[in-house]
Specification:
By secondary structure, the chain is of the alpha+beta class. It folds into 2 domains: about 150 residues, no CATH class; about 160 residues, no CATH class. The protein is built from 18 helices and 8 strands. The strands form 3 sheets. It has a 4-stranded antiparallel β-sheet.
């Protein structure tokens, strides 16, 4: 059996889907990516700006590589159920219900690297941790297509699948590209609560709930809170709306855990940093960390009208990001906020002063305002200042009570 077939067999034995793609510069995909960066739609993910040439032509870094073995690990597993006790409200994106997929698939890649080495084949594994466009390579393999929601879609596994890549020195022939099968369907676009999807397979990360709750490091402006809804970590709405989800499968290497699917929100306020890292080691919760998970939990509690006692606890949190979010959550709940005028952090004090002096101009949750889309009306210098401070400049907050607009809508 030739090395290509042996590597395929080794991957399939582990329950992974496989496809091959030859390596070549992907100029069209690179141009789209650069235009997306140029528009600032990557938000605070500055790391995406580097090594763009390598991202779309991995041979620049690994000249001996000629092909990519694409590995697909579907994660359309069922909800593992909610554990008893605790304050378990809000939603966690499906991908975070299991141990960190970077670690799980990283182990599979290392195993395949050893198989390749035994065959005298160069191999280098990637799983969303370096300058490589996995979706572009997956589309090039012919295994599926990039949908309007930005997911890599396939009739073989549906919507939800992690992609890992094994670069190899093997030569492979090009495969026919899979025709896009979204057709006239656009269910994902109205499903997005903040209008982040642009309809062309890209999104504006600055108002994407997944970006805000996972990647964004700072304060989340209250004008964006309604769109976050009950999402503690990530968001699955545009994927759940996709009809191709009926083909969903689950890789047997995944074991969803109740404590990850339905965490106790009290952890994010009462665990020390060390205790948090110990409990959530090897999970997606470490990406935002304890303070940002507390921030997210406060937003969810404010949106659901729950947890005022936890909000009061958070007002004494050692992290100013948590205290600042608690200030706005308590204000939303109609609770006194005068105590924040003595907060040790000047930004928290300034927010408290502004809320007390002109509450409607600063906290757009008053009046039940909806979450903004990527191109919306400007309202209030205070709110725009929050957006700029948060690295979300270019986004404008809508008038209260006005729903999200997609680009081009009046």
């Amino acid at each position: 059996m030739d090395p290509k077939a042996l590597l395929e067999e080794a991957a399939r034995e582990r329950g992974l889907g496989v496809a091959w793609a030859p390596l070549a510069p992907q100029e069209e995909a690179k141009a789209r990516f650069q235009a997306w960066l140029g528009a600032g739609r990557h938000g605070g993910m500055a790391y995406l700006e580097g090594r763009v040439e390598e991202r779309f032509d991995p041979r620049r870094r690994f000249p001996m590589a000629h092909s990519a073995l694409l590995l697909f690990a579907p994660y359309a597993f069922p909800d593992p159920g909610k554990p008893p006790g605790g304050l378990r409200v809000g939603r966690v994106a499906r991908y975070a219900w299991v141990r960190d997929y970077h670690l799980l698939l990283g182990e599979e890649l290392r195993r395949l690297e050893r198989v390749a080495e035994g065959l005298g084949v160069f191999a280098k594994g990637y799983v969303d941790h370096g300058p490589l466009s996995e979706r572009t390579l997956a589309a090039l393999s012919g295994a599926g297509w990039i949908g309007r929601n930005g997911y890599f879609l396939s009739q073989g596994f549906g919507v939800h699948a992690f992609i890992a890549v094994l670069l190899t020195s093997l030569e492979v022939a090009p495969s026919p590209l899979h025709p896009p099968r979204c057709g006239r369907c656009s269910r994902c676009l109205p499903a997005c609560p903040t209008g982040a999807l642009l309809g062309d397979g890209t999104l504006d990360a600055r108002v994407c709930v997944s970006y805000l709750t996972v990647e964004h490091k700072g304060f989340i402006p209250p004008g964006l809170w309604p769109g976050i809804g009950a999402w503690l970590l990530g968001c699955d709405l545009c994927g759940e709306a996709c009809p191709w989800g009926r083909f969903g499968k689950a890789w047997p290497g995944f074991a969803p855990e109740p404590e990850l699917a339905h965490p106790d929100l009290r952890d994010f306020f009462r665990l020390s940093g060390h205790a948090f890292r110990k409990k959530y080691a090897g999970t997606a919760f470490l990406r935002p960390g304890r303070a940002r998970m507390a921030r997210n939990a406060l937003i969810v509690l404010a949106n659901l009208g729950l947890g005022e006692s936890l909000m009061a606890e958070a007002a004494q949190d050692p992290n100013p990001l948590v205290r600042r979010t608690a200030l706005h959550a308590l204000f939303r709940a109609g609770k006194p906020i005068q105590g924040f005028l003595k907060d040790p952090d000047p930004t928290v004090r300034q927010d408290a002063q502004a809320l007390l002096e002109a509450p409607g101009a600063v906290d757009l949750l008053q009046g039940g305002g909806q979450a903004p889309g990527p191109e919306v009306k400007e309202q209030g210098t205070e709110v725009v200042g929050y957006l700029e401070e948060a690295g979300l400049e270019g986004i404008r907050v809508q008038e209260e009570g006005v729903g999200p607009r997609l680009p081009g809508e009046a």
